[in-house]
């Protein structure tokens, strides 16, 4: 199946190139980008085969897309108009940007500060983590892939809320991400000397992934992100109020284990995982327990922000959209040590 990557020059786009290069069904026929158009793929993504490395990055032009499926990996505000044109041409879309994740234009404007580029498309996409929307993806024309922090959080929290183990009250999320989560453009905050050997919180007044978490979980969420001194990976700690005194560590782990018992990319365990375990992969590893003294569930979730948090998650969902095994092209990915 012919596919195109729109936004191939950023870190997420580069990860898409890396994964699609070995996919047995998806055949990338074009790579488009606003930035770095005219350069060779091999200049951005080391380790590609010689023929793929020589492929050019073309300027973004949805009218030039001759493919059945498009992966859009663009900053917020840039993909809405392009998706409108792609859909008019009958192209199905996996959108890794933020433009279609929220259904309400006023909420978009509040969090992103601008008018929405394609308000008529709001509410038209399937939104959610692939493990939670498998049935909907089979017929989806557009899938809005959740943000990286959102994916890590929702995988751990949603089954506990839906099962009634957690009260529908304030959920507190603290998460740390590697620097690739800030994008490929160098800034003062991502400069080596400002990131190395330290961790800092940011967006204390509210992060744009917060309304996504609230929408997918259906509860109030207080989210604080942190920037860590490493390239890729997210570790999220989620604190949820227990529904009642009968909720214990065994019941929490049992709910998570049953929720993901047939999921090939999600592992549930007793001990907290490390981001190094999921580096370069589409895996998520969850652990949870109960703090009886204060009456809360404490869950932790680790993913690779470029893998399960973006590009590899996108390929997993695209597999489901076209009716092939969701693990196709994602087997064996990951790096250790």
From TrEMBL:
Coiled coil: none annotated. It is an enzyme of class 1 (oxidoreductase). The keyword Nucleotide-binding does not apply. Residues 2-140 form the Semialdehyde dehydrogenase NAD-binding domain. The active site is at 148. PANTHER family: N-ACETYL-GAMMA-GLUTAMYL-PHOSPHATE REDUCTASE, CHLOROPLASTIC-RELATED, N-ACETYL-GAMMA-GLUTAMYL-PHOSPHATE REDUCTASE, CHLOROPLASTIC-RELATED-RELATED. This is N-acetyl-gamma-glutamyl-phosphate reductase. The gene is argC.
């Amino acid at each position: 199946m012919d596919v195109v990557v729109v936004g191939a020059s950023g870190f997420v786009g580069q990860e898409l190139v890396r994964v699609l290069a070995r996919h047995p069904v998806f055949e990338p026929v074009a790579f488009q980008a606003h930035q770095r158009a005219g350069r060779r793929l091999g200049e951005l993504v080391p380790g590609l085969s010689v023929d793929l490395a020589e492929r050019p990055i073309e300027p973004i032009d949805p009218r030039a897309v001759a493919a059945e499926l498009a992966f859009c990996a663009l900053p917020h505000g840039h993909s809405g108009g392009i998706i409108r044109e792609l859909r008019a041409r009958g192209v199905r879309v996996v959108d890794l940007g933020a433009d279609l994740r929220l259904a309400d234009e006023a909420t978009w404007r509040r969090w992103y500060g601008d008018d929405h580029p394609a308000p008529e498309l709001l509410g038209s996409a399937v939104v959610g983590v692939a493990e939670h929307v498998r049935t909907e993806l089979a017929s989806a024309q557009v899938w809005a892939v959740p943000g990286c922090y959102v994916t890590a959080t929702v995988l751990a929290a949603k089954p506990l809320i839906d099962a009634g183990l957690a009260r529908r009250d304030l959920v507190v999320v603290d998460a740390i991400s590697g620097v690739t989560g800030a994008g490929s453009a160098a800034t003062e905050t991502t400069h080596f000397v400002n990131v190395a050997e330290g961790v800092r919180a940011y967006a204390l007044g509210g992060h744009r992934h917060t309304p996504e978490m609230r929408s997918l979980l259906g509860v109030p969420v207080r989210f604080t992100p942190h920037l860590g001194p490493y390239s890729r990976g997210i570790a999220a700690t989620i604190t949820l109020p227990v529904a009642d005194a009968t909720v214990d560590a065994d019941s929490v782990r049992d709910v998570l284990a049953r929720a993901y018992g047939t999921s090939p990319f999600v592992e549930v365990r007793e001990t907290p995982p490390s981001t190094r375990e999921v580096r370069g992969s589409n895996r998520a590893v969850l652990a949870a327990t109960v703090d009886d003294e204060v009456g809360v569930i404490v869950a932790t979730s680790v993913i690779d922000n470029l893998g399960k948090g973006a590009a590899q998650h996108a390929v997993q969902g695209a597999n489901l959209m076209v009716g092939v095994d969701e693990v196709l092209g994602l087997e064996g990915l990951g790096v250790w040590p």
